[in-house]
Write a structure and sequence with these properties.
single chain; 108 residues; mainly alpha; elongated
Amino acid sequence: MSNPVIKNLGYVLGIVMVIFPIPLLIGKVPRNHLYGIRIPKAYKSDDNWYTINKYGAKVLIFWGIINIITEFLCINIFHANHLIIFTIPVLFLLLAIIQIFMFSRKIK
């Protein structure tokens, strides 16, 4: 795999999944319509907003780290093709979204 943009795209998404949720994790983002886990349950109260966003941040950071490790293994150890390298970050992001949605269903 010679194209550095394609080779590093998965890493970039993983890094974004780790860095962007940090303000949500520490509770620095009030309810808004631009940044955060924006699902209907989160808008019902400030308590819901902070609870869902804190959990969502932990999940995104976890899957972001897993993504970075997996991308490294796929590119450097297994020499995976482009399709696998593009599919992995999307899969991990989808898993994170499902986890966050399932968690939000448990909140009153």
